[in-house]
Here is the input.
Amino acid sequence: MGLTADEKRIATELNERGYSVLDFPDAEIDAKIERIKANLGPRYKGIAFDDPKSDKTLGERRLQDAWKFDDDVRAIAANQVIIDLLSKLYGRSAFPFQTLNFPVGTQQDAHTDMVHFSSLPERFMCGVWLAMEDIGADAGPLFYLPGSHRWLALTNSIIGRRGHRSTLDSAQAPYAQGWTALREVYGAIEEPFLARKGQALIWTANLLHGGSRQIDNTLTRWSQVTHYYFDDCIYYTPAFSDEALGRLDLRHLTSIADGLPRPNTYLGEPVETPAKKKRHPFAKRLIRRLRGLN
Ligand SMILES: O=C(O)CCC(=O)C(=O)O
Ligand SMILES: [Fe+2]
Here is the structure.
């Protein structure tokens, strides 16, 4: 594949452990980070960043798709070295499609991103998590279960649940018991990512990860997550799909890098998405009648 020594290290770690750590490849990253904190800070309602004694975990903690109005968030998501690296390692062109900016720990239970974001063929998805400050054990660091990306990827058919058109408060909740069972079977140990500012961690689609409990609530834990998919796939949300029945909750994506849509395609051909037709009430009644007659 013509990999450099560092690319080979990252490829091997992604393959064997499901994650890999690297220094974010941008000489201006510190300045970008500081501008992001200044720009996004006021948007987290209820957090008094100026007061070192205040509880930072109160209020709104998650800002999705800030790339739409913040050029630095967008530049981090669209970092060409990261895109080229991921494209080289996965063998398809990577594109960023979503950003999340957090000022504190997420304190999220262990989950895989694959129940939110999957692809056909599967696993053409990854996350890149950037530490926007030094993050110690008390600040609710990101954690992961090394090697868990090789465990069974839980789907609705495996856990015995219908997904299509279902509603959920948390798309992760139905799989929690299954993940707990897998953790018991494999006996895997959680590892925290005690990151230095400017370090990034790539996680693969099926790696279990989450946010540790934040022990000191006066601390911040600034981070940005960018989620990437790869060209020429079907992109969908497994939590709301029944793959076996061909009922997919498709995603209609735009690349953050070039602003262009990435239509769902399979083996190079676009996948038709049946437009939701609004039928006339009379037609609906007629269809019901005819169905009844069959
Ligand atoms: O930052 C964290 O604590 C976890 C974020 C995460 O799981 C995600 O964005 O997929
Ligand atoms: Fe996640």
In short: The radius of gyration is 21 Å. The chain has one domain: 5-293. The first strand starts at residue 19 and ends at 23.
